[in-house]
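User: Reviewer 2 asked us to show a designed sequence for the structure in our supplementary figure. I'm pasting the structure tokens here. Could you produce the per-position amino acids so we can include them in the response letter?
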């Protein structure tokens, strides 16, 4: 869980430092999610298609801390 929080903080800093990226959040999330799925499939030995093809979360949802 610490890694997730750390990554959220890093992403938040990137967007704070580069506000011009905000209009591209959808495509950035889609690319990052696609990369994450490939990594997860490789690390878990799950078959292709085990994960949703598109992110089930919006950028805002992905950035929220879990309760």
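Assistant: Here is a per-position design you can include in the supplement:
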């Amino acid at each position: 869980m610490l890694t997730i929080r750390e990554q959220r903080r890093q992403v938040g800093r990137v967007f704070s430092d580069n506000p011009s990226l905000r209009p591209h959040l959808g495509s950035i999330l889609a690319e990052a999610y696609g990369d994450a799925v490939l990594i997860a499939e490789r690390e878990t030995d799950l078959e292709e298609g085990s994960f949703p093809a598109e992110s089930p979360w919006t950028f805002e949802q992905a950035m929220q801390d879990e309760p």
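For the response letter, you might also mention the following. Residues 42 and 48 are 9 Å apart (CA to CA). The two ends are 12 Å apart (CA to CA).
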